[in-house]
Design a protein that fits this description.
Blueprint lengths: L2 H7 L7 H8 L6 E4 L6 H7 L6 E6 L2 H10 L5 E5 L5 H7 L5 E7 L4 H5 L25 H7 L2 H12 L4 H14 L5 H11 L12 H12 L1 H11 L4 E11 L2 H15 L18 E8 L3 H6 L7 E7 L3
Parallel strand pairs: 1-2, 1-4, 2-3, 4-5
Antiparallel strand pairs: 5-7, 6-7
The structure holds S-adenosylmethionine.
Length: 314
């Protein structure tokens, strides 16, 4: 069996599974959308609680869809290929005009990460790819070998919050004057060498830059922004939106969007509202993170932050 085949069948242990189910307040007869099917970890947890309800899964990764065909062949479950920024269109195409619950579990799945041929990890050598949908045209290789220094610096700073963005971009430009970067290992070694020695200790120096490139390849900020603009409008009254994010960029987008919806009044607090804001949503509880047991069993849950929003009026 190839690495790829192993990775494909490997499950993805869902993060915050109980918290997602209670956060969504799953009802047996409800309609649910899992915007990031992955390997169906959360999807199956929701599906098994449904009687006459149904669940639609979405994923932009074709391997995830193939997996879904083998493991969720139909009934009240359906999984479709697509991007979650298109959630309204995908829901409508599948007969859903509104939902009782919508979930988004951001980022890449363990099988994607573990398959070195997909190029998401700096820990093993692989192709500089990082496309979640392998039919998309932009790859990590194109970014590192063709983007200008200014564009690389902006990506490393904006998406990776990388303080040594300029040094790393300079090193990439110098290197590609000799030969194109081909593998994740070459890029990871180059970043390590560009990093000042005293800052190499804590995390792998390539971590942030790899994440930044992945964000650019998959337009992840744009995808999440569009999703957050669209998904709340698909909720029924009483319906819930659950979003799990894995870094401060994603969590900021979620937090800002929820508070704009739940408390968008711009009038001074001690005066009557004259701005015309009508509250249709409320945030449910505070941010939820993994407990001790989950952290021990699934270290991937450490950075996860779950936020819940509820629609309270039509
Ligand atoms: C963290 S995994 C989800 C894991 C899933 N909750 C589970 O328990 O198996 C994220 C998944 O979202 C998918 N994904 C990421 N961005 C997407 C987007 N913009 N549209 C649709 N799917 C996306 C990835 O391909 C990946 O399979």
């Amino acid at each position: 069996m190839s690495d790829n085949a192993h990775a494909e069948e490997r499950p993805h242990v869902p993060v915050l599974p109980d918290e997602v189910i209670s956060g969504l307040a799953v009802k047996p007869g409800g309609t649910y959308i899992d915007s990031t099917f992955g390997r169906g970890g959360h999807f199956s947890q929701i599906a098994k609680r449904l009687t006459d309800g149904r669940i639609l899964g979405i994923d932009r990764d074709r391997e995830a869809i193939e997996y879904a065909k083998r493991h969720f062949p139909g009934g009240n479950t359906r999984v479709v290929h697509g991007r979650f920024s298109q959630i309204a269109e995908l829901a409508a195409e599948n007969g859903i005009s509104c939902a009782d619950g919508i979930l988004l579990d951001a980022g890449v799945s363990s099988p994607q990460f573990d398959d070195s041929s997909r190029g998401f990890t700096f820990r093993t050598s692989g192709t500089l790819d990082m496309r979640m949908d392998t039919a998309d045209s932009l790859t990590a290789k194109e970014i590192v070998n063709t983007y200008s220094k200014e564009r690389l610096v902006a990506i490393f700073r904006d998406y990776g919050e990388e303080r040594f963005a300029v040094r790393i971009a300079d090193a990439i430009i110098r290197r590609r004057e000799r030969a194109e970067l081909e593998t994740t290992e070459e890029l990871s070694e180059l970043i390590k060498a560009a990093y000042p020695a005293k800052f190499r200790r804590d995390k792998h120096p390539a971590k942030k830059v790899f994440m930044a490139i992945r964000y650019e390849v998959n337009s992840e900020v744009q995808e999440l922004t569009k999703f957050l603009e669209t998904a709340p409008g698909l909720l029924k009254k009483g319906g819930r939106l659950a979003v799990i994010s894995f870094n401060s960029i994603e969590d900021r987008l979620v937090k800002t969007s929820y508070s704009r919806l739940a408390d968008g009044c711009v009038c001074p607090k001690n005066r009557p509202c004259v701005c015309g804001f009508v509250q249709k949503y409320r945030t449910v509880g505070k941010v939820i993170t993994a407990g001790r047991d989950e952290l021990l069993q699934n270290p991937r849950s450490a950075p996860a932050k779950l936020r819940i929003l509820e629609r309270i009026a039509d």
